[in-house]
C-alpha cells in the first residue's frame, strides 16, 4: 500500500488554498491509494437553521474525499477527474465536533471510479454514508 508523506499531504493542502475545501476547514489526515481520511470541523458555519450540521456540508466533505482518492490513482499529467454523481444518507445529526470522512473504493476503472464514503463523529458513530462516482478523462490538448 502506498501511503503519502507529510510533505505530500502539505502539497495537497496548498492546492486547496482559496477553495471551498479551505473555507470549510477540511484537512487531510490519511491518504493511500485505497483509503482517504479527511476531517471537517462542525460548528455554526456549517449548520442548517435548526442548529445542526447541514447535509450539504456532509456531501462536500464526501465528494472531496472521493475526488482526492481518484486524483491520486490517476496520472494527473495526462488525465483529470471530476464528480459525476453522489448520493448521501444522513443517519444522525451533530452540532459540533469533528466530522471524519473515510473513502474506500468500490470500483477503480480507467474511466470511472466509485467510492464508498462513511462520515463519522469522533466517537465513531455514523453520521452519513455516501457513494460517489468520479469520471476520469484524458486532458484536452490546447
From TrEMBL:
Record GO cellular component, one term: cytosol
SUPFAM superfamilies: Thioesterase/thiol ester dehydrase-isomerase (SSF54637)
Single GO MF descriptor: 1,4-dihydroxy-2-naphthoyl-CoA thioesterase activity
Keywords annotated in UniProt: Hydrolase
Thioesterase domain: residues covered: 50-128
Pfam families with a match to the protein in the record: 4HBT
Superkingdom, taxonomy of origin: Bacteria
PANTHER family: 1,4-DIHYDROXY-2-NAPHTHOYL-COA THIOESTERASE 1 (PTHR43240)
Family named by the database record: Belongs to the thioesterase PaaI family.
Protein name: PaaI family thioesterase
Species of origin: Shouchella lehensis
Lineage: Bacteria, Bacillati, Bacillota, Bacilli, Bacillales
Amino acid at each position: 500500500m502506498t501511503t503519502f508523506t507529510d510533505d505530500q499531504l502539505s502539497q495537497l493542502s496548498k492546492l486547496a488554498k482559496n477553495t471551498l475545501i479551505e473555507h470549510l476547514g477540511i484537512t487531510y489526515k490519511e491518504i493511500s491509494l485505497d483509503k482517504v481520511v479527511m476531517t471537517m470541523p462542525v460548528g455554526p458555519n456549517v449548520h442548517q437553521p435548526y442548529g445542526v450540521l447541514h447535509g450539504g456540508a456532509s456531501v462536500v466533505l464526501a465528494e472531496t474525499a472521493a475526488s482526492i482518492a481518484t486524483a491520486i490513482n490517476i496520472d494527473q499529467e495526462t488525465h483529470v477527474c471530476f464528480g459525476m454523481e453522489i448520493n448521501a444518507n444522513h443517519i444522525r445529526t451533530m452540532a459540533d465536533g469533528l466530522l471524519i470522512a473515510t473513502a474506500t473504493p468500490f470500483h477503480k476503472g480507467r474511466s470511472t471510479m466509485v467510492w464508498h464514503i462513511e462520515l463519522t463523529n469522533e466517537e465513531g458513530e455514523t453520521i452519513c454514508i455516501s457513494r460517489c462516482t468520479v469520471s476520469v478523462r484524458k486532458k484536452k490538448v490546447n
